[in-house]
Amino acid sequence: MSFYPQIGSGVVTQFPFQRQRQWRAITTQLESGELISLPDAAGGQMTWSLQYRDLTTAEAQAVSGMFSASQGQFGSFTFIDPLANLLGWSENLAGAGWQANELSISSGASDPLGTQRASTVSNPTAGSLQLTQTLGISGDYVACFSAYVRASAAATVTMHRDGQQTAAAVGPNWARVLISGTGTAGAVQSTFSLILAAGQSVNVFGLQVEAQPWPSVYKPTSAAAGIYEETYFADDELTITSTSLGFSRASVNLISRI
């Protein structure tokens, strides 16, 4: 499985860029003139218009290398939505995508936005436990895993991605904790976990994974989204223009099947 390359310190594209979602319907006209129209769930697509400025030689080669490997419009690859929270069920920690082990989870706690959408996560066991979700994002990708966490007393929680982890201090006030960086080199999936020590109980809100080094505004999700495993170049030509010594600009158009 191949992934569209990141550039710079670990981003998918530069701003501004355009993202457009398209739906398709199948319509049948009866002899009476009545029209019956039904959605074609398999016919939807996302289109992306990416504009790059001041690409380094290595970055330009990464983009052109992906184009060559894909043989223009022929081959597919995975594209990660640069605006998406890649975690599914971000406010339903008992949802299908989460592995909670023996953690006790209850919803309806107050959150930093003044609503009741946070969860209370408790570890009743004598050992550490993880709240985990595995995503189809390359281990070579830079990603940021973040969450708002608070505890009744000063404590630490551990944020984990694959073999990397970081401990973060939490207390009675909400704090946004995070881990940023790459995962396991060459892996086609990454596992993100919040680890609680034995007997620990915390309030958690706004769990988020993004394909960039730092967190953006929290985006709630009701299902897994943002990873497009069937993406193609929209054109059979890719133009990369040298603008100065060692720097280039380029326009890239992509189509992702939904």
Write a compact overview of the structure shown.
This protein is mostly beta strands and 258 residues long.
Descriptive key words:
258 residues, mainly beta, Jelly Rolls, 2 domains, six-stranded antiparallel beta sheet, 1 helix, 17 strands, globular
How would you describe the overall organization of this protein?
The protein has 258 residues and is mostly beta strands. It folds into two domains: 17-82 and 228-257, no CATH class; 104-223, Jelly Rolls (Sandwich), CATH 2.60.120.260. Helices cover 5% and strands 46% of the residues. The chain has one helix and 17 strands. It has one helix spanning 57-70; strands at residues 17-22, 25-29, 35-39, 45-56, 77-80, 104-109, 118-122, 129-135, 143-150, 155-161, 164-170, 175-181, 190-196, 201-210, 227-233, 240-244, 247-257. Strands 1, 4, 5, 15, 16 and 17 form a six-stranded antiparallel sheet that branches. Strands 6-7-14-9-12 form a five-stranded antiparallel sheet, with no helix packed on it. A four-stranded antiparallel sheet has the order 8-13-10-11, with no helix packed on it. The radius of gyration is 21 Å and the shape is globular. The two termini are 17 Å apart.
Question: What is the topology?
Answer:
Blueprint: E1 17-22, E2 25-29, E3 35-39, E4 45-56, H1 57-70, E5 77-80, E6 104-109, E7 118-122, E8 129-135, E9 143-150, E10 155-161, E11 164-170, E12 175-181, E13 190-196, E14 201-210, E15 227-233, E16 240-244, E17 247-257
Antiparallel strand pairs: 1-4, 2-3, 4-17, 5-15, 6-7, 7-14, 8-13, 9-12, 9-14, 10-11, 10-13, 15-17, 16-17
